[in-house]
Every structure is written in structure tokens, then in C-alpha cells.
């Protein structure tokens, strides 16, 4: 679990941080929130779904078929796709709500990216002010948060219009059909029967564009199946390559490959 701590002069004034070089931190992230501003790029590469939260439906990228396996993160930690959601690009930083309208920049102190000088970059400059790099991170996360709130408002409009329905996804993998539960999608039939005045309102707000993007993104489910099959084959190959080891870890040259 991440250990989020607010960035303060007292706690981090003598510390440095490093930029991440691997997406292994996201290896168990299967549903990742999407912001409205990134929708046009995400729809070209990732399957998009809705997930219900206490605040309503959340727009998110679907990155796997198992609860804790992100198929877009390869064994080497590299991203296996054409677009990385903004929610992952801010690592190891995040915003935490400390008041009704106040957000505080935090760092995951267990990320392995919190360092001591001279390794990495400083949090604060000579005058005790946040460095330009930290200011840039804060700006990026604030913009992403505002855009994510916009996406949530559009999702709520679609839900109120009766256009979001359960989505019983089933993907074909090397192990057979893999069901993916708890997801929702745009109800295409309900969208086709939507009254003209409702469609106009959804079009003006941008919710209709979001609905079409979600439907268009369904084509990328095939990509999930391909990634699942490819990683299963790679895992089998690694097991085969280690076939010379006996069950107790001793060398076994009796098997022929």
C-alpha cells in the first residue's frame, strides 16, 4: 500500500526524489481513472468503461482481466501500449484532499523514489520555496484533477439520462473465456431511443462525445485478450527454460529440450 505523506519543508527539506523509470508500481492497477482532457487520446489505445463509486459512475481505462494484473505493464516494467493514463504519469506524487476545497501535494514515501542528496532532485530551493520541478508536478496534478471532475460530471449526466448499463465482459484468453465483472458501459439501445431534447443537452455539455468514445473504445478489448495470451505464453516459456532444475532446485539434465 502507498504511504502518502504531505510534502512539507519540515519533512522533506533535506530530501530529494527521483523520477520513475518503470511502471511496475502500476502492475496491479486494473481500473485507472480517466480525465476528460485525455479522452481523445485514450480512446485510440485503451478500452474504456465506467465503474460505480459512492459519488457516481467513474470513467476509467480497463487495463486487465484479473483483479490485480495490469496487462499493459510488461515483465520488464515497460508500458505495452500507445497511451499512458495521466493518473499513472504523476507517480510518485498525488493530491490528497485536506479540506473541503483544498488539495495537498503528497508523495508515496514507500515508492523507493524518496532519496537523500546528492541522489535525485530537491523538493525545495535555497529560499525554501518548492523547486520548478515540484511546481510543474503540482500544476499537472491539479489540471488532471479538474479534468477528472469534469469527466465525473459528464458521466453523471449519462447516468441520469438512463444511458449507463451493466457490462458483462467476457474475454477469450489462452485459459478460456475470462469474465470481467463490475463494469458498466453506454447502453447503445437506450442511446438510439434517447429523446431529441436530451440528446441536444448531452451534446452541448460534451457528455454525448464521451458516450461515443466509450462505445468506440470497446474495439480495444481484443488487445486485452492478446496481451493476456502473450504474457501466458511468455510465462510458460520461462517455466520451460527452467526445466533443467529439479523440484528441489538441483540441476536436472535428464530432460531434453
**Average residue-wise pLDDT:** 88
How would a crystallographer describe the biggest sheet?
3 strands, antiparallel
Helix-residue proportion: 25-40%
Proportion of residues in β-strands: 15-25%
Number of strands: 13
Protein structure class: alpha+beta
Number of helices: 8
The shape is globular
How far apart are the first and last residues' alpha carbons, in Å?
Answer: 41 Å
The overall number of domains is: 1
Neighbour order of strands in the largest sheet: 1-7-6
Our Rg estimate from Cα atoms comes to 22 Å
Helices and strands, in order, run as: EHEEHEEHEEEEHEEEEHHHH
- Low-pLDDT residue spans: 247-257
Describe this protein's structure.
- It holds the Pfam family SapC.
- It comes from Thiohalocapsa halophila.
- InterPro entries: SapC.
- This protein is an alpha+beta fold and about 260 residues long.
- It has one domain (about 5-240).
- Helix content is about 35%, strand content about 20%.
- It has helices at about 10, 40, 85-90, 130-160, 190, 195-205, 205-215, 220-240, and strands at about 5, 15, 30-35, 50-55, 55-60, 95, 105-110, 115, 120, 165, 170-175, 175-180, 185.
- The strands form 5 sheets. Strands 1-7-6 form a 3-stranded antiparallel sheet, with helices on one face.
- A hairpin with a 2-residue loop joins β11 and β12 (about 175-180).
- It is globular, with a radius of gyration of 22 Å.
- The chain starts with a strand and ends in a 16-residue tail after the last helix.
Amino acid at each position: 500500500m502507498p504511504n502518502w505523506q504531505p510534502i512539507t519543508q519540515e519533512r522533506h527539506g533535506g530530501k530529494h526524489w527521483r523520477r520513475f523509470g518503470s511502471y511496475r508500481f502500476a502492475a496491479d492497477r486494473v481500473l485507472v481513472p480517466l480525465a476528460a482532457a485525455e479522452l481523445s487520446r485514450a480512446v485510440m489505445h485503451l478500452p474504456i468503461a465506467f465503474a460505480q463509486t459512492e459519488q457516481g459512475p467513474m470513467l476509467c481505462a480497463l487495463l486487465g482481466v484479473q483483479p490485480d494484473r495490469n496487462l499493459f505493464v510488461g515483465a520488464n516494467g515497460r508500458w505495452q501500449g500507445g497511451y499512458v493514463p495521466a493518473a499513472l504519469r504523476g507517480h510518485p506524487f498525488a493530491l490528497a484532499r485536506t479540506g473541503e476545497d483544498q488539495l495537498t501535494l503528497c508523495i508515496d514515501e514507500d515508492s523507493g523514489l524518496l532519496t537523500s542528496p546528492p541522489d535525485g532532485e530537491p523538493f525545495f530551493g535555497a529560499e525554501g520555496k518548492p523547486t520548478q520541478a515540484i511546481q510543474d508536478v503540482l500544476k499537472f496534478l491539479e489540471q488532471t484533477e479538474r479534468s477528472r471532475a469534469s469527466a465525473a460530471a459528464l458521466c453523471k449526466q449519462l447516468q441520469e439520462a438512463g444511458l449507463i448499463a451493466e457490462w458483462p465482459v467476457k474475454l477469450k484468453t489462452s485459459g478460456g473465456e475470462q469474465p470481467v465483472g463490475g463494469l458498466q458501459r453506454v447502453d447503445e439501445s437506450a442511446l438510439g431511443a434517447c429523446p431529441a431534447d436530451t440528446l441536444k443537452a448531452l451534446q452541448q455539455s460534451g457528455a454525448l462525445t464521451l458516450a461515443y468514445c466509450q462505445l468506440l473504445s470497446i474495439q480495444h478489448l481484443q488487445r486485452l485478450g492478446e496481451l493476456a495470451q502473450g504474457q501466458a505464453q511468455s510465462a510458460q516459456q520461462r517455466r520451460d527454460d527452467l526445466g533443467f532444475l529439479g523440484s528441489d532446485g538441483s540441476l536436472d539434465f535428464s530432460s531434453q529440450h
